[in-house]
Amino acid sequence: MKLSASERTGQILIIVLLSLLCVSVLYPFLYMLAISLNVGSDAANGGVYLWPRKFTLYNFEVVLGNAVIQHAYLITILRTMIGTIAGLLVTLLAAFGLSYRGLPLRGTLLGYVLITMLFSGGLIPFYIQLYNLSLVNTFWVYVIPSAFSAWNMFVMLKFLQGIPDALIESAELDGAGPLRVLVSVVVPLSQPMLAALGLFVAVMHWNDWFAGAFFVSDQNLIPVQTFLQHLLSAQDISTVLGSNNNIESLARGSMLENITLMSIKMATVMISAIPILCVYPFLQRYFVKGVLIGSVKG
């Protein structure tokens, strides 16, 4: 099909705009990667933009060899795994129960959940609630408050309402109860949606620094993103990586003098961002399919 001059111009304009958008997204990441792979003292002189001028892996050795960061990384991994499983389980059970049109007070329950999406009590009442539940300064403050998301529940509910009633009715005629229907019928058909919501929840847990900064004071419980937030506002390496003796124990010869706060910051950013970027390509097809089905079916 031959395109007119205006259509070709429009396509060229779209390509240019999308290319500029890609550059604006990729450049900061490439800049941080270049700084993290460059000798810190050399990068401090400027001129490092897209690739390292003096290549080194020492910044990553210092970051990965630090006990504080290792523990923060462990907290983040545990939080992401447990929080994602809990979030998907609670969301699936709530959506499955509310998908039955004959459920008593179904409309009232849906309205109650909808209200929580529109109105919030604020940070201080939320903190008081967490304190009364003995969740403040515990690991479970990362998991329990975020186990249920009204938005995710409505998306999952929309998807479940698109499952043909004949499949559920045939399972019930064969003697299957609600739990058997959930395990044998609903879960296998909901894998794309579960993968999409799982990615949403996992990214939220991995990137969240707020809970660790405001609800946790124990430094042994802070996740890596909260540690990164402290690091970005720090003025000295020893304030976040421990004492100078701990830093010097990681040094090899004269490499200690080549470490700068900026190079450590960029290496920490890379370490905190790369894992979630590696997981996304494997779930992308489920992510796109699940979001489209959940937004269209009804």
From TrEMBL:
Keywords: Cell membrane, Membrane, Transmembrane, Transmembrane helix, Transport. The chain crosses the membrane at residues 12-34, 72-97, 109-128, 140-160, 181-206, 259-283. GO terms for cellular component: plasma membrane. It is found in: Cell membrane. GO terms for biological process: transmembrane transport. The keyword Cell membrane applies. SUPFAM superfamilies: MetI-like. It holds the Pfam family BPD_transp_1. Residues 73-268 form the ABC transmembrane type-1 domain. It is a multi-pass membrane protein. InterPro entries: MetI-like, MetI-like_sf. The keyword Cytoplasm does not apply. It comes from the Bacteria. Coiled coil: none annotated. Belongs to the binding-protein-dependent transport system permease family. PANTHER family: ABC TRANSPORTER PERMEASE PROTEIN MG189-RELATED-RELATED (PTHR43744), POLYGALACTURONAN_RHAMNOGALACTURONAN TRANSPORT SYSTEM PERMEASE PROTEIN YTCP (PTHR43744:SF9). This is ABC transporter permease.
